[in-house]
Amino acid sequence: MRARCCAWPRSCWPARLVTPNRPAASARHRGPACPVSAGPWGTVSRPVRRSACSVLIRGGTSSVGLAAAALATWRGATVLSTSRQAGRLALLKERGVDHPLLDTGQVAPAVRELYPGGVDAALDLVGTPTLPDTLRSVRVHGTACFGGSLSNQWTIRDFSPNEYLPKGVRLSGYSGDAADLPQQAFQEILDAVAAGQLAFPVDRVYDGLEQVPRAHDDMEHDRAAGKLVVRVRHSPATSPRL
Ligand SMILES: NC(=O)c1ccc[n+]([C@@H]2O[C@H](COP(=O)([O-])OP(=O)(O)OC[C@H]3O[C@@H](n4cnc5c(N)ncnc54)[C@H](OP(=O)(O)O)[C@@H]3O)[C@@H](O)[C@H]2O)c1
Prior knowledge:
With 242 residues, the protein is an alpha/beta fold. Among the domains are: 47-173, Quinone Oxidoreductase, Chain A, domain 1; 202-242, no CATH class. 31% of the residues lie in helices and 21% in strands. The chain contains 8 helices and 10 strands. It has helices at residues 27-44, 63-74, 89-94, 108-114, 131-136, 161-164, 183-194, 212-220; strands at 2-4, 12-14, 54-58, 78-83, 99-102, 119-124, 138-146, 170-173, 202-207, 227-231. Strands 5-4-3-6-7-8 form a 6-stranded parallel sheet, sandwiched between helices. It has a two-stranded antiparallel ribbon with strand order 1-2. The longest helix has 18 residues, at 27-44. The structure holds NADP nicotinamide-adenine-dinucleotide phosphate (NAP). Residues 39, 42-43, 59, 61-64, 83-85, 88, 125-126, 147-151, 174-176, 219, 222 line the site of NADP nicotinamide-adenine-dinucleotide phosphate.
């Protein structure tokens, strides 16, 4: 079975990737929310179960990292988030991050200055090069989630649990799709977006399919911080109302 998608109204998608929702939010709201919700939700919803929780996001200026920060803040967490570029720390602050951190490869000491016992939860999107340091940032009985690999390094050679994992710190992983985002949770996200309580950052909008190479070039060269959107113009008769 296949269905249409609100972000790409003319496309046809496997039904398992489609989550029904009430039209509380307009298509303008739903469009950016659809592609950024499932991954960030899957990675932050389990560790960030209660308010007053502290969460570290590694790879914080990625579109997934920014969406995860938005969701975590919306759920009442205090967010620490990283960029390798000092010039992007102000952007993280603007996007609601409580503690922007410069990622030099080691952020655990800076995290421990803020939270001497370690943070409650961490989401690592950079990959296995930073994962040991991310684990060292987490408190006993806290959880670090391996949610992606911007470094493109996915494996741990000669994994020895007792040496790799700090005592009492949990390591989890997440990789999934729309099926992991419960309908009710997605509806709550859409309602919050429509009410202006939650926003998913769009870095820039490109007009027309001919701009796709430029969008890819910007993405490949890390010029963007947030989602890139390509707006396609349709003839007025068939244009979806966004
Ligand atoms: N678990 C899931 O279901 C799921 C779903 C979707 C995506 N993901 C994963 O989430 C990650 C983020 O994807 P995205 O599309 O949001 O990325 P993106 O927007 O293209 O992020 C690019 C940014 O990542 C930062 N970064 C940090 N360390 C990096 C490194 N070693 N190499 C390159 N960039 C680095 C850079 O920012 P600074 O220069 O500011 O540090 C860069 O500007 C990917 O690993 C992807 O596989 C997971």
